[in-house]
Each structure stands twice: as C-alpha cells, then as structure tokens.
Amino acid sequence: MASPTTDPPVRQDAVFAALASPVRRAVLTLLRERGAQPVHVIAAEFAMRRPSVSEHLKVLLACGLLTETRHGRERHYALRPEPLREVAAWLTPYEQFWRQRLGALDALLAEDLDDGAPGEEGDARDR
Amino acid sequence: MASPTTDPPVRQDAVFAALASPVRRAVLTLLRERGAQPVHVIAAEFAMRRPSVSEHLKVLLACGLLTETRHGRERHYALRPEPLREVAAWLTPYEQFWRQRLGALDALLAEDLDDGAPGEEGDARDR
DNA sequence: GCAACCGGTAGGAATCTCCCTACCCATGTG
DNA sequence: CACATGGGTAGGGAGATTCCTACCGGTTGC
Predict the structure, then answer these.
(1) Where does the HTH arsR-type domain start and stop, copy by copy (chains A, B) (predicted)?
(2) 0.85 surpassed by pTM
C-alpha cells in the first residue's frame, strides 16, 4: 500500500476512457459549474435511468475524477481535477506541434528528422 | 464530406476514445519524436500483428489524429495535432481548479520543508 | 414503527473493442 | 513474367461497455 504521490501508469488509460463518454464529460462540466451535487440532481440532467448514471459516477470515481461525501442519505459527488492536470501534462510535448503548424512546415521537418534518425531503440512507450 | 473546418461534437468522443489505448498513445509519441513513418516501422515497435496495428492506425486516422501519404507501396503516417489542441481547449476551464488546489498543496509542502523541526506532527495527510 | 426517499448492486441483452488468422490487391525487383 | 514486399480487409472469438429492469440496504419524516 505504498503509493504516496506516484501515479500508476494504468491510470492514464482509465482517465481517457472515462472522458470518452459524453455523459461523463457532461457530469464533470456540471460539477465544475455548480459544485458538488447529490446523485438525484445529476441524474435529472440525463435521459437515462439512475442506475446507469450511478455506473457512470462509479467510473469517474474509480479513475480519481470525483470525490464522494456522505451527507445523511445523500452522497455528494464533487470534481477532483488532478487527473485532468495529468492529461494536460501528457499534452504538453504536443503543444509545439499545433503552435508551429501553419503550413507544410512540419511535414518538411518530419522528413528531415526521418532522414537523420540515429539508432536509439526500444522505448516507444508513453508515460 | 461536408465540414471543411468545423468540428462536429461527435469528434471529441472519438478523440478521447482513441487516446484511451496505450498502443495508440505510443504511436502518437513515436510519430512526434521521429516524424512520419511507414506502417511496418510502426508495427515493429509493438508486440502485436500488423493487421492489429493497422486497425489502430485506422482509428487514429478516423478521428483526425493522423494524416496518410502514399509513397510508392508504402503509406506514411504523420501526426496531426489539431484534435489534441481541441482536447487542450476542453481542459482549459478546469485549469483554475487544479491551480488553486495545487496552490494549497504547494503551501503545505513549503511549510513542511521550511519547518524542518517536527514541532507538531500532522501525519494524517498522506494518501 | 412504517412509508417514502436516496442510491447502490445484480444480472442480462445489445453492442463495441481488440486481438487473431486468412486472404487480397498494389507496387516494386529479379 | 514470377515473386517478394507493403499494407489493407474479412470475419471470428473473448472480453469489456452501456443501457435496462429488478431489488435491497440506509436515512428521514409521520
């Protein structure tokens, strides 16, 4: 049980998968705009039964995008933005690409890099 | 074929879903670092058969994260970062949330570090 | 206590994902 | 022309996703 501040790499998959659903993105938007809300308020926003919303909340909770607080018989879910910060961090190295991309310039650069690639082998993983 | 520069809202789903696979994120990383590459070079990086890699490339191509160029009998795939810019744009309204929280954490850490002597031990704060 | 309310779990059907093995077409090269 | 190389498509199987209808355990109010 030692994982003080590190984030397991499996988390990134779960966060992106969670964000792939429009319902779940809408839940995050709702909580961002209105703050913590109980389930029945969240569920009222969607054309779907409460158990399905509950499942979506479970997915968001499991990947750390939500926190849960018990208030009597209600459970309030609130946005937890840290995983989104990690997504932003993952995007960082790509920023320069969309910044400088105003023509076929990067295609030329790509060809150049392609030509002069030395032999560093073996890590094509992301992190 | 009827949306030259506009972005249908359905695209966001596809982009996040594409990014949910570690294989596809690794493809993007590879193309970012080495520029455009033919399929057999990309496929050599993964412990999977070429048709599967081909499917992954099709997914990335379909959501606009890749461009395809024919060179003889090879097809070169290159990174197309625009959809990632849209992801970054989607993240923007959340930035303030993790900034303020990071600020609070920062203050706590600074206090801890600054205050080397254990005057009062607050051990209830790891996670 | 008893009924209404909040919200999670069980389990099932339709659909999607991800990998595989075959197979096919196109482009080069002897 | 014959054949190797590059790479897409077909279709199938195991497992995950997403919705549903039931159902059940806690809280709150009469």
Answers:
(1) 4-99
(2) no
